[in-house]
Write a structure and sequence with these properties.
- The protein has about 160 residues and is mostly helical.
- It folds into 2 domains: about 10-90; about 95-160, hypothetical protein PF0899 fold (2-Layer Sandwich).
- About 75% of the residues lie in helices and about 5% in strands.
- Strands 1-2 form a two-stranded parallel sheet.
- α2 crosses α3.
């Protein structure tokens, strides 16, 4: 049968139970602290990763903008040269007429219409008329089709173009 515990035995059992409860509390506290540290680490890691992605994206965008800027500068230079060469070409009427004729033919072939209107600067109308005549002849020779081309005198291009 069971017998009564002495005061010493009760005291020892209480000490064991107290020690066990303290140990459990310490372990639980340690788990909570570890969990808090892990959570904090994950937050910092996510923040660092996000910061790294933002930095990488910023660098990529800056590089892309530099490339676009360089491309734009190159295109601006090409357009300036082309504009200069075009001004030179307009000085030589024979060469200018040939250029206009070829441009007209290209447009006629692309449109494949029986009638086209041509816009130009007022100062170039005589050269354009000659280019239209030449282009109409060549178009008929190559396609065996008639085409009527006329100058749109109601809507001339600006003089500085």
């Amino acid at each position: 049968m069971s017998h009564a515990l002495s005061d010493d035995q009760v005291s020892q059992e209480l000490k064991k139970m107290t020690a066990f409860i303290k140990q459990e509390a310490m372990e639980k506290g340690l788990r909570q602290e570890t969990s808090a540290i892990d959570t904090q680490y994950e937050k910092k890691f996510k923040t660092a990763r996000m910061s790294q992605q933002i930095t990488q994206s910023t660098v990529t965008n800056k590089t892309r903008l530099k490339v676009l800027s360089a491309r734009q500068e190159l295109l601006d230079g090409i357009f300036e040269k082309a504009q200069g060469r075009l001004k030179e070409a307009t000085q030589d009427k024979g060469k200018y007429t040939e250029i206009l004729k070829n441009l007209l033919l290209e447009g006629m072939y692309a449109l494949n219409e029986g009638k086209v209107q041509v816009r130009g600067r007022k100062q170039d109308y005589d050269v354009i008329k000659k280019a239209i005549e030449d282009a109409q002849k060549e178009y008929k020779e190559k396609t065996k089709k008639d085409i009527v081309a006329s100058i749109d005198e109601k809507n001339p291009l600006p003089e500085e173009s």
